[in-house]
Structure prediction request, 440 residues.
Amino acid sequence: MSQQETILKNAFAAALAVADPIKIVPEYLGKIFPKGFEPKERCLVVGAGKASASMATALESHAQSHWPNAKIEGVVLTRYGHNSPTGHIQIIEAGHPVPDQAGMDGAKEIYRLVGELQTGDILIALISGGGSSLLTLPQAGISIEDMRKTTEALLRSGAPIEEMNVVRKHLSAIQGGNLARLAITRGARVEALLISDVTGDSPADIASGPCAPDYSTYQDALDILAKYHLSSNSIPESVLSHLQRGVAGEVPETLKEADLQNTAVSNHVIATAYKSLEAAADYVRTQGYEPVILGDTITGEAQEVGIEQAALARQHLSTKTNEPIALISGGECTVTIPNGIKGRGGRCSEYLLSFFAASTDLPHVSALAADTDGIDGSEKNAGAWFTPGIRQAADKQGLIPAQYLAQHNCYGFFSQLDALVETGPTLTNVNDFRIILLDK
Prediction:
Protein backbone atom coordinates (compact mmCIF):
# COMPACT_ATOMS: atom_id res chain seq x y z
CA MET A 1 0.00 0.00 0.00
CA SER A 2 1.45 3.38 -1.00
CA GLN A 3 1.79 6.24 1.47
CA GLN A 4 -0.90 8.22 -0.35
CA GLU A 5 -3.36 5.32 -0.28
CA THR A 6 -2.77 4.88 3.45
CA ILE A 7 -3.35 8.58 4.15
CA LEU A 8 -6.53 8.69 2.03
CA LYS A 9 -8.05 5.68 3.77
CA ASN A 10 -7.00 6.75 7.26
CA ALA A 11 -8.48 10.21 6.70
CA PHE A 12 -11.81 8.59 5.77
CA ALA A 13 -11.58 6.37 8.87
CA ALA A 14 -11.05 9.45 11.04
CA ALA A 15 -14.11 11.08 9.50
CA LEU A 16 -16.20 8.01 10.32
CA ALA A 17 -14.89 7.61 13.88
CA VAL A 18 -16.08 11.02 15.04
CA ALA A 19 -19.62 10.16 13.86
CA ASP A 20 -19.74 6.73 15.54
CA PRO A 21 -23.10 6.42 17.39
CA ILE A 22 -21.60 4.09 19.99
CA LYS A 23 -19.41 6.98 21.15
CA ILE A 24 -21.55 10.06 20.62
CA VAL A 25 -25.04 8.87 21.67
CA PRO A 26 -24.06 8.22 25.33
CA GLU A 27 -22.27 11.58 25.49
CA TYR A 28 -25.42 13.46 24.49
CA LEU A 29 -27.79 11.35 26.59
CA GLY A 30 -25.66 12.29 29.60
CA LYS A 31 -26.17 15.98 28.77
CA ILE A 32 -29.91 15.69 28.06
CA PHE A 33 -30.61 13.54 31.12
CA PRO A 34 -28.00 14.46 33.77
CA LYS A 35 -27.74 12.48 37.00
CA GLY A 36 -30.90 12.95 39.03
CA PHE A 37 -32.98 13.78 35.95
CA GLU A 38 -32.73 10.47 34.08
CA PRO A 39 -35.91 8.72 32.81
CA LYS A 40 -37.64 6.86 35.63
CA GLU A 41 -40.83 5.63 33.98
CA ARG A 42 -41.87 4.71 30.42
CA CYS A 43 -39.36 5.72 27.76
CA LEU A 44 -40.49 5.03 24.20
CA VAL A 45 -37.64 4.90 21.68
CA VAL A 46 -38.42 5.23 17.98
CA GLY A 47 -36.29 6.10 15.02
CA ALA A 48 -35.35 5.70 11.40
CA GLY A 49 -32.21 5.93 9.30
CA LYS A 50 -29.04 4.14 8.32
CA ALA A 51 -27.45 4.91 11.70
CA SER A 52 -30.55 4.52 13.85
CA ALA A 53 -30.10 0.85 14.76
CA SER A 54 -26.59 1.46 16.09
CA MET A 55 -27.95 4.53 17.90
CA ALA A 56 -30.51 2.26 19.57
CA THR A 57 -27.76 -0.16 20.62
CA ALA A 58 -25.82 2.72 22.17
CA LEU A 59 -28.93 4.04 23.96
CA GLU A 60 -29.74 0.64 25.46
CA SER A 61 -26.17 0.27 26.72
CA HIS A 62 -26.29 3.71 28.33
CA ALA A 63 -29.72 3.09 29.86
CA GLN A 64 -28.61 -0.20 31.39
CA SER A 65 -25.82 1.61 33.25
CA HIS A 66 -27.48 4.93 34.08
CA TRP A 67 -31.30 4.56 34.00
CA PRO A 68 -32.06 1.63 36.33
CA ASN A 69 -35.75 2.53 36.74
CA ALA A 70 -36.60 3.39 33.12
CA LYS A 71 -38.87 1.11 31.10
CA ILE A 72 -37.27 1.08 27.65
CA GLU A 73 -39.23 -0.12 24.60
CA GLY A 74 -39.73 0.92 21.01
CA VAL A 75 -39.24 0.39 17.29
CA VAL A 76 -36.47 1.63 15.01
CA LEU A 77 -36.33 1.31 11.22
CA THR A 78 -33.08 0.93 9.32
CA ARG A 79 -31.93 -0.02 5.84
CA TYR A 80 -31.46 -3.67 4.95
CA GLY A 81 -28.03 -4.78 6.14
CA HIS A 82 -27.68 -1.98 8.73
CA ASN A 83 -28.97 -3.89 11.77
CA SER A 84 -27.42 -3.69 15.22
CA PRO A 85 -28.12 -5.83 18.32
CA THR A 86 -30.72 -4.63 20.85
CA GLY A 87 -32.64 -6.22 23.70
CA HIS A 88 -35.75 -4.07 24.26
CA ILE A 89 -36.00 -2.00 21.07
CA GLN A 90 -37.25 -3.81 17.97
CA ILE A 91 -35.16 -3.21 14.85
CA ILE A 92 -36.97 -3.46 11.51
CA GLU A 93 -34.99 -3.53 8.26
CA ALA A 94 -36.70 -1.96 5.25
CA GLY A 95 -36.18 -0.54 1.76
CA HIS A 96 -34.01 2.47 0.91
CA PRO A 97 -33.93 4.72 -1.09
CA VAL A 98 -37.19 3.41 -2.53
CA PRO A 99 -39.66 2.60 0.30
CA ASP A 100 -41.25 -0.83 0.64
CA GLN A 101 -44.00 -2.55 2.62
CA ALA A 102 -41.68 -3.45 5.52
CA GLY A 103 -40.93 0.24 6.04
CA MET A 104 -44.58 1.19 5.86
CA ASP A 105 -45.55 -1.51 8.37
CA GLY A 106 -42.79 -0.35 10.71
CA ALA A 107 -43.84 3.28 10.36
CA LYS A 108 -47.43 2.29 11.19
CA GLU A 109 -46.22 0.59 14.37
CA ILE A 110 -44.22 3.67 15.37
CA TYR A 111 -47.26 5.87 14.78
CA ARG A 112 -49.42 3.51 16.88
CA LEU A 113 -46.97 3.46 19.79
CA VAL A 114 -46.56 7.25 19.86
CA GLY A 115 -50.35 7.57 19.76
CA GLU A 116 -50.53 5.58 23.02
CA LEU A 117 -48.15 7.80 25.00
CA GLN A 118 -49.39 9.30 28.27
CA THR A 119 -48.64 12.51 30.15
CA GLY A 120 -45.20 12.24 31.72
CA ASP A 121 -43.88 9.68 29.23
CA ILE A 122 -40.67 10.40 27.31
CA LEU A 123 -40.30 9.90 23.57
CA ILE A 124 -36.72 9.60 22.34
CA ALA A 125 -36.39 9.73 18.55
CA LEU A 126 -33.17 8.43 16.98
CA ILE A 127 -32.97 9.99 13.54
CA SER A 128 -30.34 9.80 10.83
CA GLY A 129 -29.97 10.10 7.09
CA GLY A 130 -32.10 7.64 5.15
CA GLY A 131 -35.05 8.15 7.47
CA SER A 132 -37.11 9.94 4.83
CA SER A 133 -37.50 6.75 2.78
CA LEU A 134 -37.77 4.44 5.77
CA LEU A 135 -40.42 6.41 7.68
CA THR A 136 -42.93 6.07 4.90
CA LEU A 137 -46.46 6.38 6.24
CA PRO A 138 -48.51 8.20 3.58
CA GLN A 139 -51.38 10.51 4.32
CA ALA A 140 -54.88 9.10 3.77
CA GLY A 141 -55.57 8.33 0.11
CA ILE A 142 -51.91 7.81 -0.88
CA SER A 143 -50.67 4.22 -1.25
CA ILE A 144 -47.18 2.85 -0.68
CA GLU A 145 -46.97 2.25 -4.44
CA ASP A 146 -47.78 5.92 -5.05
CA MET A 147 -44.99 6.93 -2.66
CA ARG A 148 -42.59 4.54 -4.37
CA LYS A 149 -43.35 5.96 -7.81
CA THR A 150 -42.95 9.51 -6.54
CA THR A 151 -39.59 8.71 -4.91
CA GLU A 152 -38.32 7.00 -8.07
CA ALA A 153 -39.36 9.98 -10.24
CA LEU A 154 -37.60 12.42 -7.90
CA LEU A 155 -34.45 10.28 -7.83
CA ARG A 156 -34.28 10.16 -11.62
CA SER A 157 -34.94 13.88 -11.97
CA GLY A 158 -31.66 14.83 -10.26
CA ALA A 159 -33.43 16.84 -7.56
CA PRO A 160 -31.20 17.35 -4.49
CA ILE A 161 -32.21 15.53 -1.33
CA GLU A 162 -33.46 18.72 0.36
CA GLU A 163 -36.00 19.29 -2.41
CA MET A 164 -36.99 15.63 -2.49
CA ASN A 165 -37.74 15.80 1.20
CA VAL A 166 -39.92 18.90 0.89
CA VAL A 167 -42.19 16.86 -1.36
CA ARG A 168 -42.09 13.70 0.75
CA LYS A 169 -42.76 15.37 4.08
CA HIS A 170 -45.96 16.88 2.66
CA LEU A 171 -47.16 13.40 1.79
CA SER A 172 -46.31 11.87 5.18
CA ALA A 173 -48.28 11.32 8.37
CA ILE A 174 -45.00 11.25 10.36
CA GLN A 175 -42.48 13.60 8.74
CA GLY A 176 -42.58 17.38 8.68
CA GLY A 177 -42.91 17.41 12.48
CA ASN A 178 -46.03 15.26 12.51
CA LEU A 179 -44.50 12.68 14.87
CA ALA A 180 -43.74 15.37 17.48
CA ARG A 181 -47.21 16.83 16.95
CA LEU A 182 -48.77 13.47 17.81
CA ALA A 183 -46.56 13.04 20.90
CA ILE A 184 -47.26 16.46 22.39
CA THR A 185 -51.00 16.04 21.94
CA ARG A 186 -50.57 13.02 24.25
CA GLY A 187 -48.68 15.12 26.83
CA ALA A 188 -45.28 13.49 26.26
CA ARG A 189 -41.81 15.04 26.32
CA VAL A 190 -39.88 14.70 23.04
CA GLU A 191 -36.08 14.46 22.75
CA ALA A 192 -34.78 13.82 19.24
CA LEU A 193 -31.12 12.89 18.59
CA LEU A 194 -30.07 13.50 15.01
CA ILE A 195 -27.09 12.48 12.92
CA SER A 196 -27.03 14.89 9.99
CA ASP A 197 -26.41 13.94 6.38
CA VAL A 198 -27.78 17.17 4.90
CA THR A 199 -26.17 20.50 4.08
CA GLY A 200 -26.89 23.08 6.75
CA ASP A 201 -27.71 20.43 9.40
CA SER A 202 -31.26 21.74 9.90
CA PRO A 203 -33.38 19.34 11.99
CA ALA A 204 -36.23 20.03 9.56
CA ASP A 205 -34.17 18.49 6.74
CA ILE A 206 -32.65 15.46 8.49
CA ALA A 207 -34.88 12.50 7.57
CA SER A 208 -37.53 15.09 6.68
CA GLY A 209 -37.76 16.28 10.27
CA PRO A 210 -40.25 13.97 12.05
CA CYS A 211 -39.84 15.96 15.28
CA ALA A 212 -38.89 19.39 13.93
CA PRO A 213 -40.93 22.40 12.82
CA ASP A 214 -40.99 22.67 9.06
CA TYR A 215 -40.23 25.80 7.03
CA SER A 216 -41.71 24.54 3.75
CA THR A 217 -45.26 24.50 2.42
CA TYR A 218 -47.52 22.52 0.11
CA GLN A 219 -46.93 25.18 -2.52
CA ASP A 220 -43.18 24.63 -2.25
CA ALA A 221 -43.72 20.91 -2.91
CA LEU A 222 -45.76 21.61 -6.03
CA ASP A 223 -43.18 24.15 -7.23
CA ILE A 224 -40.42 21.53 -6.94
CA LEU A 225 -42.37 19.03 -9.04
CA ALA A 226 -42.90 21.74 -11.65
CA LYS A 227 -39.20 22.70 -11.56
CA TYR A 228 -38.22 19.18 -12.64
CA HIS A 229 -41.13 18.83 -15.07
CA LEU A 230 -42.72 16.09 -12.98
CA SER A 231 -46.44 15.90 -13.69
CA SER A 232 -49.17 13.29 -14.07
CA ASN A 233 -47.00 11.33 -16.51
CA SER A 234 -44.63 10.38 -13.63
CA ILE A 235 -46.35 11.47 -10.40
CA PRO A 236 -49.49 9.57 -9.26
CA GLU A 237 -52.75 11.50 -9.31
CA SER A 238 -53.32 10.80 -5.60
CA VAL A 239 -50.08 12.64 -4.79
CA LEU A 240 -50.84 15.66 -6.98
CA SER A 241 -54.38 15.85 -5.61
CA HIS A 242 -53.19 15.75 -2.00
CA LEU A 243 -50.66 18.55 -2.57
CA GLN A 244 -53.29 20.67 -4.33
CA ARG A 245 -55.72 20.12 -1.44
CA GLY A 246 -52.96 21.20 0.93
CA VAL A 247 -52.45 24.46 -0.98
CA ALA A 248 -56.20 25.02 -0.76
CA GLY A 249 -56.11 24.56 3.02
CA GLU A 250 -58.20 21.42 2.98
CA VAL A 251 -55.57 19.35 4.85
CA PRO A 252 -53.31 20.55 7.71
CA GLU A 253 -49.86 21.97 7.00
CA THR A 254 -46.71 20.43 8.44
CA LEU A 255 -45.69 21.40 12.01
CA LYS A 256 -44.66 25.05 12.40
CA GLU A 257 -42.73 26.95 15.11
CA ALA A 258 -45.97 28.47 16.41
CA ASP A 259 -47.29 24.97 17.14
CA LEU A 260 -44.49 24.37 19.67
CA GLN A 261 -45.33 27.14 22.13
CA ASN A 262 -45.36 25.74 25.69
CA THR A 263 -44.35 22.25 24.59
CA ALA A 264 -41.41 20.02 25.55
CA VAL A 265 -39.81 19.27 22.19
CA SER A 266 -36.04 19.41 21.61
CA ASN A 267 -33.95 18.40 18.59
CA HIS A 268 -30.23 17.71 19.18
CA VAL A 269 -27.87 17.43 16.19
CA ILE A 270 -25.16 15.15 17.59
CA ALA A 271 -23.01 14.51 14.50
CA THR A 272 -22.46 16.52 11.34
CA ALA A 273 -20.48 16.35 8.13
CA TYR A 274 -18.36 19.33 9.15
CA LYS A 275 -17.20 17.66 12.37
CA SER A 276 -16.09 14.70 10.27
CA LEU A 277 -14.21 16.96 7.86
CA GLU A 278 -12.44 18.56 10.82
CA ALA A 279 -11.42 15.12 12.14
CA ALA A 280 -9.92 14.23 8.76
CA ALA A 281 -8.14 17.59 8.69
CA ASP A 282 -6.61 16.92 12.11
CA TYR A 283 -5.32 13.57 10.86
CA VAL A 284 -3.74 14.77 7.61
CA ARG A 285 -2.01 17.56 9.50
CA THR A 286 -0.11 14.88 11.44
CA GLN A 287 1.00 13.44 8.07
CA GLY A 288 2.57 16.70 6.92
CA TYR A 289 -0.32 18.04 4.81
CA GLU A 290 -1.85 21.47 5.27
CA PRO A 291 -5.62 20.82 5.27
CA VAL A 292 -7.99 23.15 3.43
CA ILE A 293 -11.65 22.47 4.24
CA LEU A 294 -13.71 23.55 1.26
CA GLY A 295 -16.98 23.15 3.17
CA ASP A 296 -19.68 20.56 3.76
CA THR A 297 -22.28 22.12 1.47
CA ILE A 298 -20.87 21.36 -1.99
CA THR A 299 -23.67 20.20 -4.25
CA GLY A 300 -24.40 19.98 -7.97
CA GLU A 301 -23.95 17.40 -10.70
CA ALA A 302 -21.18 15.02 -9.63
CA GLN A 303 -19.32 15.27 -12.95
CA GLU A 304 -19.39 19.08 -12.87
CA VAL A 305 -18.14 19.19 -9.27
CA GLY A 306 -15.26 16.88 -10.26
CA ILE A 307 -14.22 19.26 -13.02
CA GLU A 308 -14.50 22.27 -10.72
CA GLN A 309 -12.35 20.65 -8.04
CA ALA A 310 -9.71 19.67 -10.60
CA ALA A 311 -9.44 23.35 -11.50
CA LEU A 312 -9.22 24.21 -7.81
CA ALA A 313 -6.44 21.64 -7.33
CA ARG A 314 -4.55 23.14 -10.28
CA GLN A 315 -4.90 26.58 -8.70
CA HIS A 316 -3.52 25.41 -5.34
CA LEU A 317 -0.60 23.63 -7.01
CA SER A 318 0.35 26.85 -8.77
CA THR A 319 1.06 28.60 -5.46
CA LYS A 320 4.66 29.15 -4.42
CA THR A 321 4.51 27.08 -1.23
CA ASN A 322 6.19 23.69 -1.33
CA GLU A 323 4.02 22.29 1.47
CA PRO A 324 1.71 19.43 0.43
CA ILE A 325 -1.97 20.31 0.67
CA ALA A 326 -5.12 18.27 1.37
CA LEU A 327 -8.41 19.62 -0.02
CA ILE A 328 -11.28 18.20 2.06
CA SER A 329 -14.98 18.63 1.32
CA GLY A 330 -18.45 17.27 1.97
CA GLY A 331 -21.95 17.77 0.69
CA GLU A 332 -24.14 15.68 -1.56
CA CYS A 333 -23.79 15.76 -5.33
CA THR A 334 -26.42 14.45 -7.71
CA VAL A 335 -26.29 12.20 -10.76
CA THR A 336 -28.89 12.67 -13.46
CA ILE A 337 -29.19 9.47 -15.50
CA PRO A 338 -30.73 9.78 -18.99
CA ASN A 339 -33.43 7.36 -20.08
CA GLY A 340 -32.02 4.17 -21.53
CA ILE A 341 -28.85 4.16 -19.41
CA LYS A 342 -28.72 1.84 -16.40
CA GLY A 343 -25.55 3.10 -14.74
CA ARG A 344 -23.39 1.41 -12.12
CA GLY A 345 -22.02 3.28 -9.16
CA GLY A 346 -23.03 6.39 -7.26
CA ARG A 347 -22.36 10.07 -6.87
CA CYS A 348 -19.02 9.58 -5.07
CA SER A 349 -17.42 7.34 -7.68
CA GLU A 350 -18.92 9.51 -10.44
CA TYR A 351 -17.40 12.64 -8.92
CA LEU A 352 -14.05 10.88 -8.50
CA LEU A 353 -13.86 9.62 -12.07
CA SER A 354 -14.76 13.07 -13.35
CA PHE A 355 -11.98 14.55 -11.20
CA PHE A 356 -9.61 11.81 -12.40
CA ALA A 357 -10.38 12.62 -16.06
CA ALA A 358 -10.06 16.38 -15.53
CA SER A 359 -6.68 16.16 -13.76
CA THR A 360 -4.55 14.20 -16.25
CA ASP A 361 -2.05 17.07 -16.21
CA LEU A 362 -1.57 16.64 -12.45
CA PRO A 363 0.31 13.33 -12.20
CA HIS A 364 1.10 13.60 -8.47
CA VAL A 365 -2.50 14.07 -7.29
CA SER A 366 -4.32 11.42 -5.22
CA ALA A 367 -7.97 11.44 -4.14
CA LEU A 368 -10.77 9.52 -2.44
CA ALA A 369 -14.52 10.02 -2.41
CA ALA A 370 -16.90 7.89 -0.36
CA ASP A 371 -20.33 7.92 1.25
CA THR A 372 -20.03 7.78 5.03
CA ASP A 373 -22.87 5.25 5.27
CA GLY A 374 -20.71 2.75 3.38
CA ILE A 375 -22.96 2.47 0.31
CA ASP A 376 -22.44 4.61 -2.80
CA GLY A 377 -25.43 4.37 -5.11
CA SER A 378 -26.28 1.12 -6.85
CA GLU A 379 -23.41 -1.10 -5.69
CA LYS A 380 -21.97 -2.26 -2.36
CA ASN A 381 -18.89 -0.05 -2.26
CA ALA A 382 -18.66 3.20 -0.29
CA GLY A 383 -16.82 4.96 -3.10
CA ALA A 384 -13.42 4.86 -4.79
CA TRP A 385 -9.87 6.21 -4.63
CA PHE A 386 -6.82 6.72 -6.82
CA THR A 387 -3.13 7.53 -6.54
CA PRO A 388 -0.48 8.16 -9.21
CA GLY A 389 0.03 4.39 -9.30
CA ILE A 390 -3.66 3.80 -10.08
CA ARG A 391 -3.48 6.38 -12.87
CA GLN A 392 -0.55 4.52 -14.39
CA ALA A 393 -2.45 1.22 -14.13
CA ALA A 394 -5.46 2.75 -15.92
CA ASP A 395 -3.23 3.96 -18.75
CA LYS A 396 -1.60 0.53 -19.00
CA GLN A 397 -5.00 -1.19 -19.25
CA GLY A 398 -6.22 1.32 -21.83
CA LEU A 399 -9.19 2.41 -19.73
CA ILE A 400 -10.81 5.56 -21.13
CA PRO A 401 -12.61 7.55 -18.39
CA ALA A 402 -14.87 9.42 -20.83
CA GLN A 403 -16.47 6.18 -22.00
CA TYR A 404 -17.31 5.14 -18.44
CA LEU A 405 -18.58 8.61 -17.55
CA ALA A 406 -20.90 8.62 -20.58
CA GLN A 407 -22.44 5.34 -19.39
CA HIS A 408 -22.43 6.40 -15.72
CA ASN A 409 -20.44 3.22 -15.05
CA CYS A 410 -17.85 4.61 -12.66
CA TYR A 411 -18.06 1.49 -10.52
CA GLY A 412 -16.89 -0.54 -13.52
CA PHE A 413 -13.89 1.73 -14.07
CA PHE A 414 -12.55 1.62 -10.51
CA SER A 415 -13.39 -2.04 -9.93
CA GLN A 416 -11.03 -3.01 -12.77
CA LEU A 417 -8.27 -1.14 -10.96
CA ASP A 418 -9.03 -2.65 -7.54
CA ALA A 419 -9.58 0.91 -6.35
CA LEU A 420 -12.99 0.69 -4.67
CA VAL A 421 -13.55 1.77 -1.05
CA GLU A 422 -15.35 -1.18 0.55
CA THR A 423 -16.34 -0.78 4.20
CA GLY A 424 -19.75 -2.44 4.30
CA PRO A 425 -22.47 -0.57 6.22
CA THR A 426 -20.72 1.81 8.62
CA LEU A 427 -23.86 2.25 10.80
CA THR A 428 -23.51 6.02 10.63
CA ASN A 429 -24.27 8.61 7.96
CA VAL A 430 -22.92 12.17 7.73
CA ASN A 431 -23.09 12.68 3.98
CA ASP A 432 -20.31 12.29 1.42
CA PHE A 433 -16.58 12.67 2.10
CA ARG A 434 -14.00 13.81 -0.41
CA ILE A 435 -10.25 14.35 -0.01
CA ILE A 436 -7.61 15.39 -2.57
CA LEU A 437 -3.90 15.13 -1.76
CA LEU A 438 -1.74 17.62 -3.62
CA ASP A 439 1.90 16.61 -3.50
CA LYS A 440 4.23 19.24 -4.93
Summary: The longest strand covers residues 71-79. The chain has a mean pLDDT of 95. Residues 274-438 form a domain with the glycerate kinase, domain 1 fold (CATH 3.40.1480.10).
